[in-house]
Every structure is written in C-alpha cells, then in structure tokens.
C-alpha cells in the first residue's frame, strides 16, 4: 500500500523535476517477472526512485546495510520500501558473513516470481564513467536459476541512466533500456560456475557500457560535451532529442580515443583551445547557447507570454514559494555531498510539497467549508509547473539579451570571440569527415 502510494507521488515528482525525460527500448520494459534489473548508479537515492517509476512491476532493492539502520528502522525499510540489506566488506567487515542470508533470501524471492534491483558498481559517483562491476549480481542470478533446476527462466535487464545533471532542477534525463540477458543461456554455454559468472558479467558490462556514455578518461567528459556544442553551433550536427545528443557524444568519445593515439598533438591542441574559449566566454558572460537562441526566442509570441503571463506566474509563485524554499533550506542545512544533493532534493520535494498542498486544502476546506478545496492540490501544482516554465523562459530571455548586448556593445569582446571561434572551426574541420556521419545510429 505504502509502496504503491509512494510510486504515484514519485511519478508526479520525477516528471516535474526533469525538463525532458526520454526512454529508449520501452518494449523491453514489458519483460515478464522474475527479472533482475541492473543499472549504473550516478545519483544515490534518485536512481532507484526513477527505476521504480518507469517499471510496471514492484522492485525489491539490494541496498547497503549502513543506510538502513537497525531495529525498527531496518524492519520499516525492509517491509515498506522493499529493501534487502547487503553488508559490504568495505563498510561492514564484521557483518559480511550475514550476506549468506541475503543470497538465500534473493534465491527464494526470485524463485517466487518477484524482481530485484541491483547497482553492480557498488558505489554511487556522479560521472560519465562506468566503474568496475561487482560479481554479486551474477552469483545471485546463477544461484537462483540453479535453485529452480533451470526452470526459472530468469532475465537480467540492463538500464542506463544518462543525466545532463542529476543535481540540477529541470535538467534532462535519457533512459536507455537494453534487450534482456537470459541467465539460462549463459549457464548452458559453460560447465564451471566460475566461467558462468565471468561470462555473465561480461554480457552485463557490455549492455551497460552500450547504454551509458562511459568516458574512460573522466577528465575528457567536459571536453567532449563542449565539442558537441561547438558542432551544433557550426550546424555540423542537429540533435532533435536527448537520444540523438547521446549518440553524438558516444561517437565523439569513440573517435577522441582514436585521435589521441593517431593525432595526439593536434588533439591536445584542440582540447587546449576549446578550454581557453570556454574560459573566455565564462569570464565575459557570454555563451554559444545564447547566440543560437537569439533569433528563436526574440519573437512576438515569447514577449507576449512574458508580459501577459506574469499574473499567472505570481499565482504559481505565491502558492509554491514556501515549500520550494523549504527544500533549499533543508539541503543547505544538511550540507550534502554532490552525489546526494539531487536525490535528497527529489525526495524532500515530494514529501514537503505533498504535505503543503494537503495543508492548503484542509485550511481552505475548514474556513470556507467548500467542496472546491479538494481541487487545491491540483490547481497549486499546475500553477507551480507554469511558474517553473515561465521563470525558465525569463531566464533564457535575460541570458540571450545579456550575451547579445555584450557582443554588440563591446567591440573588443566581439573581435576576440570571432577570432577564437574561427580558430576552433578550422581545427574541427580537420576532424569533421571522421567525426561526422549522416547517421550516427548505424555507426
């Protein structure tokens, strides 16, 4: 009951938190249970919430025991949040022997037709890099299949979570769902259990690497995204959605590794010039995005909405300002690390806004004794979403016009901007034939 209620609230919260949320491979989400879902883990508690929202079946979560506490708290998490404790040797060395019970529980759980969620990296780090995978997921899968005499037909579903920035409100998220892996087919190909585990881990790794960006050298992540933005600016690429952008970044990453080996000097020079250009733009308060948006956003329609939409924005602001500020105050008080920031914002926002809307409805219901008070949560939520969209529009207008005024008003800045951009364009032309193709999907 509590899980189902939280799933409904989480769905509303997730689709409010992200500006764009796209899912590829949706047909694989209809997989029949039992299933072990594996995913990368860039954002602690946010990742399981999102996966629980997009999957139709109930998930039971393998979670680090240190986050579950003891006694009543541990029982509460196990019963109502479907969490199964795992005792990591790195954090709970004295309790690691209890993992035998965890394995046995998972075998029975899967054998009864239920599903698990496991993050095989074993750590949560916000990066575009897939860390080494722990073998626990393969041991659980193979053990459960063998416990059923290979009749379970267990599948492993790999899901890649690709955030533009999980800790930023109204950011983007692309979810790539891979074709499921048949555990039975892997077992049938190998006699020894160690070989079965190794083969299954190879398949899981391949699926996850294909569904996330996975930049081997983490320091190259920002550079690859900057080159992608430059190519869009030069009209060399035109991604229509998050999936297109992801595929472009994957290909850029692949070619960058080749260029470093074959054209190291020119690649390093391009990297340095790109870094210098972005430092210059940050220093002067200008951006490529602003220049690209100038013609699109400075229209009669945009300014009409900006002027006459202000009263609706004020309604949304007044009805949602207190819970919005409370979430920010809570995050500041907790002094969270980057990995936890977005996850706590999402969870805290879900609870605080829900209680706030209920309090508003009850207060108006008791004072006005009106049936219409029941609609207050829906009205306040709708106006809140409008206020977010409106403030985003105003932010873009300010950024675009500020950047445009800077370039038009200061000849020195404009001259340096044009010179640097021309230099980068000429350098990128050298790589263009290899980097760019008419169809990234077929590469």
Characterize this entry briefly.
This protein is α/β, with parallel strands linked by helices.
Q: Any descriptors?
A:
single chain; 443 residues; alpha/beta; Glycerol-3-phosphate (1)-acyltransferase; 3 domains; 16 helices; 10% strand
Overall description:
With 443 residues, this protein is of the alpha/beta class. It has three domains: 2-211, Glycerol-3-phosphate (1)-acyltransferase (3-Layer(aba) Sandwich), CATH 3.40.1130; 218-295 and 419-442, no CATH class; 298-409, no CATH class. 62% of the residues lie in helices and 10% in strands. Strands 1, 2, 3, 4, 5, 6, 7 and 8 form an eight-stranded mixed sheet that branches. β6 (155-163) and β7 form a beta hairpin. Mean pLDDT is 87; it is low at 437-443.
Strand content: 5-15%
- Class by helix and strand content? alpha/beta
Number of helical elements: 16
Quaternary form: single chain
Proper CATH architecture of the largest domain:
3-Layer(aba) Sandwich
Kindly report how far apart the N and C termini lie: 46 Å
Helix and strand layout, with pairings?
Blueprint: H1 2-17, E1 18-24, E2 35-39, H2 46-54, E3 59-64, H3 71-80, E4 83-86, H4 99-111, E5 115-118, H5 136-147, E6 155-163, E7 171-177, E8 181-182, H6 183-189, H7 193-211, H8 221-233, H9 242-262, H10 264-284, H11 288-297, H12 300-308, H13 310-334, H14 338-368, H15 376-409, H16 411-435
Parallel strand pairs: 1-7, 2-5, 2-6, 3-4, 3-5
Antiparallel strand pairs: 6-7, 6-8
Helix pairs in contact: 1-2, 1-14, 4-5, 5-7, 6-7, 8-9, 9-10, 10-16, 11-15, 13-14, 13-15, 14-15, 15-16
């Amino acid at each position: 009951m509590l899980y189902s209620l939280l799933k409904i609230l989480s769905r509303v919260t997730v689709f409010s938190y992200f500006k764009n949320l796209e899912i590829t491979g949706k047909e694989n989400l209809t997989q029949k249970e039992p299933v072990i879902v594996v995913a990368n883990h860039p954002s602690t508690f946010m990742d399981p919430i999102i996966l629980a929202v997009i999957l139709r079946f109930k998930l039971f979560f393998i979670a680090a025991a240190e986050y579950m506490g003891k006694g009543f708290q541990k029982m509460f998490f196990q019963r109502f949040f479907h969490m199964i404790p795992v005792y990591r040797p790195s954090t709970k060395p004295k309790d690691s022997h209890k993992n035998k019970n965890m394995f046995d529980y998972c075998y029975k759980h899967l054998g009864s037709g239920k599903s698990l969620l496991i993050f095989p990296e074993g750590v949560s780090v916000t990066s575009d890099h897939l860390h080494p995978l722990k073998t626990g997921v393969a041991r659980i899968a193979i053990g459960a299949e063998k416990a059923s005499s290979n009749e379970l037909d267990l599948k492993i579903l790999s899901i890649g979570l690709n955030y533009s920035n999980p800790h930023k409100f109204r950011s983007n998220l692309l979810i790539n769902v891979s074709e499921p892996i048949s555990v039975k087919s892997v077992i049938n190909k190998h006699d020894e259990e160690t070989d079965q585990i190794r083969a299954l881990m190879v398949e899981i790794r391949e699926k996850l690497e294909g569904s996330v960006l996975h930049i081997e050298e983490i320091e190259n992540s920002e550079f690859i995204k900057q080159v992608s933005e430059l190519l869009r600016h030069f009209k060399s690429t035109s991604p229509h959605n998050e999936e297109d952008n992801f595929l472009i970044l994957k290909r850029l990453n692949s070619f960058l590794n080749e260029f470093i080996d074959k054209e190291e000097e020119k690649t390093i020079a391009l990297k340095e010039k790109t870094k210098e250009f972005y430092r210059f733009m940050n220093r002067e308060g200008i951006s490529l995005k602003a220049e690209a948006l100038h013609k699109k956003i400075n229209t009669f329609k945009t300014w009409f909405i900006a002027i006459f939409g202000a009263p609706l924005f004020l309604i949304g602001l007044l009805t949602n300002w207190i819970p919005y500020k409370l979430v920010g105050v809570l995050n500041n008080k907790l002094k969270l690390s980057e990995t936890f920031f977005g996850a706590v914002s999402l969870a805290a926002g879900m609870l605080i806004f829900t209680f706030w809307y209920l309090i508003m409805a009850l207060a108006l219901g008791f004072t006005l004794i009106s049936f219409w008070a029941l609609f207050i949560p829906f009205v306040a939520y709708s106006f809140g979403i409008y206020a977010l969209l409106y403030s985003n529009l105003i932010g873009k207008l300010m950024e675009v016009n500020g950047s445009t005024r800077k370039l038009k008003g200061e000849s020195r800045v404009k001259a340096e901007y044009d010179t640097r951009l021309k230099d980068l364009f000429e350098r990128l032309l050298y790589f263009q034939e290899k980097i760019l193709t008419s169809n990234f999907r077929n590469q």
